[in-house]
UniProtKB/TrEMBL annotation:
It is an enzyme of class 3 (hydrolase). The record marks 325 as: Important for catalytic activity. Mg(2+) binds at residues 317, 326. This is DIS3-like exonuclease 2. Residues 1-21 are annotated as: Disordered. It comes from Xenopus laevis. GO terms for molecular function: 3'-5'-RNA exonuclease activity; magnesium ion binding; poly(U) RNA binding. Belongs to the RNR ribonuclease family. DIS3L2 subfamily. GO terms for biological process: cell division; miRNA catabolic process; nuclear-transcribed mRNA catabolic process; polyuridylation-dependent mRNA catabolic process.
Amino acid sequence: MHNNEFLSPVQTGTQRGTNRSILNEKCRGKGKKKNIFEAYITKEEVSAGLKRGELIQGSLRINPKKFHEAYLPPPDGVRDIFIDGVVSRNRALNGDVVVVKLLPREQWKVLKTDVCEGDDVPGHEYSTGCAQKAIVDQVKACAIEEKALSKQGDSRSLSDDCFQKTAKVVYILEKKHSRAATGFIKPLSDKSTDLARKHALFSPVDHRLPRINVPLVDCPHDFAMHPETYASTLFICSITAWREDSNFAEGKLMKSLGQAGEIEPETEGILMEYGVDFSDFPKKVLQCLPQNLPWSIPQEEFQKRKDLRNECIFTIDPATARDLDDALSCKSLPDGNFEVGVHIADVSYFVAEGSALDSMASERATSVYLVQKVIPMLPRLLCEELCSLNPMTDRLTFSVIWKITPQGKILDEWFGRSIICSCVKLSYDHAQNLINHPDKMFEKNELPPVSSQHAINEIHQAVLNLHLIAQNLRKQRFDDGALRLDQLKLTFTLDKESGMPQGCYIYQYRDSNKLVEEFMLLANMAVAHHIYRRFPEEALLRRHPPPQTKMLNDLIEFCDQMGLQLDFTSSGTLHKTLNDQFGTDEYSTARKEVLTNMCSRPMQMALYFCSGALNDEALFHHYALNVPLYTHFTSPIRRFADIIVHRLLAASLGCGPPLKTSKEVIQKQADHCNDRKTASKRVQELSAELFFSVFVKECGPLESEAMIMGVLNEAFDVIVLRFGVQKRIYCNSLPLVSSNFQQIGKRPELTLLWKPEQKGEKSVQQVISIFTLVEVVLKTDNVPLKYTALLKRPEAQ
C-alpha cells in the first residue's frame, strides 16, 4: 500500500462514508442485537451487477499502517476507491479479489475543501480500534460524525475533484490471501462464557487481520493452566470462517513456531503466512527426475542441437549463487563486429509438460530468496546440478546469438537449442576486476578455475568487449526513454556457525551488473518479438502499466512546491531529469535517494499476461523499459513464466512439441505467476527486515546520517542513509520542550525545541523540513523484532 502522507502533512477532509449509516443506526437502536457485517450478494447478482456497471471488481489493498483504511484500484485509472473501516471491508483480507458497490456521493471522502483544513476532529478517530472491534464507542462515534458533518457544510456544492469515491465490499470473488497468520495466544477475557471455556484468543502480528477464536484443544495441553508460559511463543493459525455476527474470525491453530524474535521461527511464519510451499518435494515429483546418476547428455541431443562446447562461454553471477541460469559469449569477427551469445539453461527439457514436476513448479511459480537461504521452485538436483551452467560441464541450453556492431546495432539474430561447456564461473567481483584493469595480465590465482581450452586473456577480452557493447546498449536504451529507479538495497554478512547477521551494507550496483543486465534485457526483448510473431494469441509477455495518475499528480504537485524541476511527461524525461540535476556530493546523493523513493510510490507492478487476453496492443507496453514487447526468458531455473516462454520458443522453431495450450490457460498461469511474484517480493522484504531487526538488537544502538522524507503534524519520516531503511520518528519520543508544525508557503515544517541537558543551559531549536540532513540512532525495543529511530540532539550553535 502506498502511503501519501508525505504529500499531505495536514489531515484534510473527514473519512466519512461507509460506517456512517451503521454508526447512526447503532446510536438510535442501542442494545439491539444485529449482524455486524452484511451478507454477501449472490453470484448471479455479482455477474449482473458487473455487466450493468453497478458493481466494480478489483484487488483489495489494506494500509499496513492504518488497517481501517483499504483501497481498490480505480477503473478510470485516476484515484483509488476508498473503503473506510472494517465493517465496509466485510471480512475481505488483503489481496483478495473483491466486488464492491459505490456509496452515494454524499458519503464520499472529502479531499480538498477549506472548511476541512485544520479540522480538530480527525475523520478516522472512530475507527482506530483493533480490526475485530468494528465499533468502539457508539455514542462518541455519533458525536464525532455529527461534528464532522457540521464543519464540512454542504458538500453538494463541491466538484468531483474534491472527493474520493467510497465503497463497500459486497462479495469476495477470489480469496487470494492465504488465510494464515502468525501471532500469539491468550485466554479470552470473559472466562464465564461457553466460548471462553472452549476457546483461546489468537492475536495476529499483522493488524490487518482479525483476532481469531481458536479451540483450546488445538493449544498446548497446559495452556489453560499456565497461559503466561506461552506469552512470547509464536504460533501459526489458519482462518476457517468469519461469521456475519462476529467481530472475531474462527480458526485452527496449526503449529507452534517457537520463540518470537528468533530467526527460524519468524522465517517459517513469514513463509506460511504468504503461502510459500517450503516442504520437501514429494516422491512422485522426484520420480520425474533422471534416475540414473551421474546423468550425461543423451547422444541424440547432439544431433538436434548446435554444439557450442568449444566456444569461450562463461557465467557471471553473485559469488554465492548455485543456480546458474545464464551464460555469455562474445567473439570478435573479421569485419570489426561481434558475435554475442546469451545461453540459458534448458530447463524445459527436464520439466515435461503435464508431469507431476511440471504441476508443482507451476504451483510454486518462483524461487523465493531469503537472506539466509533459497526456497527453490525446482528440486535441487535440477537447480544446482543438471540445469545449472556449472563450469567445465556439458549443459543443455537455449541460445540467442546475434551479429552485433560495437555500438549495439543488431545485424543478424539466431534462436535455437544448443549445448555449451562454460569455461569459468566468474563472480560480479571478478568481472568488475577485469573491467577495471583492461591492460592487466591476470594470473591464474586471481580468478576461479579456468578451462584449459581457453586462455585467461581470451576471457578477459571477451568481458571487455561485452562491457563496451553493454555501455552503448545502455546509453541507447536511456536515450530512447527507459527509466530505472535504483533504491538502496541492504545486504547481510552472516556468521557461518550461528547464521546470525554479523554486518550489513548497501549493495553496490556496478558495471559488471550492468553488463549482464543489458544482455538479459536484449535476449528477453528478442524472444518477446519472436514468440509474439509466431503466436499472436498465445504469447506469454510482460507489461508494465504507467504510474497511477492520482499519485503521480500528487507527486508533481509536491515537486512544484519544493521547487524541483522533475519532468514527469514520460519514463525517459523522468529518468533524465532525476539523474541530470543532482551532483555527486553527499547532500545531492541523499536527496536523489529520497526522490527516487518518492518516484517509486506511484509506479505499478509489472505483470505477466497472455497476448490474446488483451485486445489493445498499446496495453502491452512496458513503461519502465519504454518498449512495445517484453517477456522473461533468461531465468527458467527460478521462474515458471520463463519455462512457458521456452516452450513457446521451442514450438515456434520446431525443436519442441507443438503448442497445445489455450490462451485462457496461459492467462490463468500468468495471473498465478503474478500472485506468487508479489508474495515472493514481500517475503524477501520481510526477511531483510527480520535480519535487520536482529542486527539492531545484537549490534545496536547504531548511528547514521538520515534525510527527512516527509513532515507531519507530530512526526516525521526519515531514510536512514547508512542502511537504506525508512523510519517514522514521533515528537513525543524526544526530550522536547515543544514542537510546532506550520506550513511555510506550501512546505511543511516542524520546529523542535529541545530540553536543556543540564541546568543553566539554553534550549536548542531545530527546524525539520523535507531534505534536511539529520543524525539518528537506531535502538531495539522491548518488543521482538521492533526497533526505534530517535533523532540525535543537535549541537548548540
